[in-house]
């Protein structure tokens, strides 16, 4: 996941392109899962967290996975704000 995210969120691309690349990656991943399983699976960490909320070990691990992506989102959003592409309310 680190290598994929480091590539997708590389500062070589504009902040807008980074989000576009991320959404394309998510789409491609979900489309591949659909081809293999016949189902749209959704975001696995969120699905696990909802389904296993009373299991502390799984809940903590899914929280770690969700927080892993947070640093990438914050960086891109900060870059968008600094570029004046979005404003902070």
Biggest sheet layout: none
Topology order in helix (H) and strand (E) letters = HHHH
Number of strands: 0
CA distance, first residue to last residue: 31 Å
Strand content: under 5%
| Number of helices, counting only DSSP H or I runs of 4 residues or more | 4
Number of domains: 1
Task: Characterise this structure.
- The chain has 4 helices and no strands.
- With 89 residues, the protein is mostly helical.
- The protein has one domain.
- The model has no long low-confidence stretch (mean pLDDT 85).
What is the compact description of this entry?
The protein has 89 residues and is an all-alpha fold. It is built from four helices and no strands. The relative contact order is 0.13.
Protein topology:
Blueprint: H1 2-8, H2 15-37, H3 44-51, H4 56-82
Characteristics:
single chain, about 90 residues, mainly alpha, 4 helices
